[in-house]
Amino acid sequence: MKQEKFNVTGMTCAACSAHVEKAVAKHPGVQSVTVSLLTNSMQVAYDGPATPASICNAVSQAGYGASPKDGGKAEKTKEPANSKTAAGLIASIALLIPLMYVSMGHVMWGWPLPNLTPLSIALFELLITGIIMVIHQRFFISGFLSARKGAPNMDTLVAMGAGAAFVYSTVLTFQMAQDPAHAMHQLHGLYFESAAMILTLITVGKLLEERSKGKTTDAIRSLMELAPETARVIREGKEELIPAEDVRLGDIFVVRPGERIPVDGKVIDGSGAVNEAALTGESLPVEKSPGDSVSAATLNQQGFLTCEATRVGADTTLQQIIALVEDAAATKAPIAKVADKVSGVFVPVVIGIALVTCIVWLAVGEAFGHALARAVTVLVISCPCALGLATPVAIMAGGGVGAKNGVLFKTASALEHTGRTQIAVLDKTGTVTRGEPAVTDIIPAPGVEKAELIACACALEARSEHPLAKAVAALGETGAAAEDFKALPGFGVQGTVSGKKALGGSMALMQKEGLLTAAMKKTGENLALEGKTPLYFAENGKLLGLIAVADILREDSREAISELRELGIQTVMLTGDNLRTAKAIAAQAGIDHVVADVLPADKEAAVRALQEYGVVAMVGDGINDAPALTRADVGIAIGAGADVALDAADVVLMKSSVRDVAAAIRLSRQTLRNIHENLFWAFFYNCIGIPLAAGALIPLFGLELDPMFGAAAMSLSSFCVVSNALRLNLFKPYRRTHKFTHKAVNLPEDFGQAAESTKEETEMTKTVYIEGMMCMHCVAHAKKALEALEGVTEAEVSLEEKKAVLTLSAPVEDAAIMNAITEAGYTALRVE
Questions:
Q1: What is the pLDDT of residues 429-476, one digit of tens each?
Q2: Whole-angstrom distance between the N-terminal and C-terminal Cα of the chain?
Q3: How far is it, in rounded angstroms, from Cα 546 to Cα 524?
Q4: What is this structure's pTM?
Q5: Which residues are the active-site residues?
Q6: CA–CA separation, 803 vs 829, rounded Å?
């Protein structure tokens, strides 16, 4: 199945977009279609007999224009049509002033005029109104063409209202010519000024609406403007200044201080500080050095960078962000369905109400002019645009605010559902925690100085490439450089430090060398139960102590969880750690519930179980999270995660900060509130305005609405809806003072344990916790040893979580499992 985007021209209201959508949906081969009045665009999923040309033809037959969108760089806003409309409006106002002076000032209020006959005044009004109608002929062309094709729109209402007033007044003018004696009386029944004023006021409203709609895309337009137009590339050893769009994949380009980076790339030489606020909203510059990635539109504040282009054109991060926000605006939120259904039948219903109004007033004995005025007012006060714009303008504005703050919503549905979140599920590694090891404890052996332990550890681990070694080396103690360095697979490392034989590694290594004391063994086991990895160090046959390394909490995790709880959201942490370790980490972060001992394949099942209690948002960053992100009602991916996680997610957090989860939920809830306000105004306006225009209050209060005031009300209704959506641009999603009422859920206190017990009842598995694995070679070695046991059908070994989960076809003794691990050269802590 193919997906294609199209530009659509000729749409003026929600009825137009509904008709285009209906026409394309009926086309053979079209699977789905979404039309956006806000962006004048259409997304179509199709296969089989449908082609871009045939789809464009279907739109054309419906009375509108369509063309495939350029798949390259996002188009910048063009405004020639608005300039033409503004010129026509100025001319209309210039003509309307003398028309209103004559028709209202002289005829109604006796303002002075040359000695003119009533017929001369009527002909003057006819001439001026005729010119104004020619200026705004698009209302009549579009309106009557749409009506002829069976799809009347807002232009049809305007054309019928203004046209009826003009035709009726023209007939009266001819009667004045035939019966001069009653000409003055008939002069008061003319509606030329109403026809001219209707067209002028509707045009004013349209211009205000278009201007406001344009402001909803300011966030995206500002991103487009950040992209530099030129790039400095190195070709044939020379620096050339070329258009940024001409940069090719693999080109070498340079960026001087103060210049913006033209395309996504990788630094191959030099270093600098790059401000990535354009993409992430984070104002602090990020240090870049060889091997680091850089993104288009970010600003190189310091240093000279030489980079290789890795993503160009529409593939750059900037263009993908723009595409995401535009696509979100082009899709429809579930909350918009009611308004879409109403918009689809709105215009025919209004025409019917206008006809009934005219007939009823004639039936009760009113003059034809009075009945016509009521019908015209009904036609011109009705506004399908307010209904059609209520949701998309808020979605576009909300999505733009999110993009400026590094929160990307992929669809309108994602923006809506994020605010309905009741349960936030967070993967531990890389989301709640940093996802990289750091030193947590330094415990010297009795009689050993702490500095002595650190010096030996740093000297050894500085030569190692293992991730745990880097954490130890980061302690910053230089010490003497280790000589005769050698890795001991499955155990650790050894070398010579200041002429002394040094060892560093697992508990198993120290046991093998006969250096491990009972006290230090117990200390290491206790640390291991807390999810930490104890690394022991010895020198010349003397145990120096241990340094514990673990994946620690992110700096903002505790604050992020606190913010989620303020929003009435239950928090759940998924982890492969044992329940005791998981509860310790959850307590540090303030998380409500824990689901422990979860394999990657089980994350999706855990999310499914939580969905029985409420709307679930899954927050993760890795490949293993993809199924759970897809299963959740809202999948939220940390921006630094793997690409597949981003593809599976509905919301992407560019800054990789868990606090952005709360910010995304606040923004979504504020956008939902804005949509509700817009929909209320749109429905309320039409429900009150149409009966008032029909004259329902005349018998009770004598309240009568002139067609001109009806047109003014219509022109302002859409403007009010769009202006209300623009208030979202002032919203600060990180401000904790925003209050939202929300239906909370209560999970059972033992939810995590209950999930585990259910799992144990349905599967015959055992988990063994292993100490001493240092690399993927260790993982393979342990897996082979376990799967050699009779009754073990599969062993899934995790280096990160320091455990192996065994799937059993028959009972296997715990002692046999622990013995297999010991014989493989590792330490089995326990079996569960």
A1: 778 888 778 899 999 999 999 988 998 888 888 888 777 888 888 886
A2: 48
A3: 8
A4: 0.71
A5: 427
A6: 10
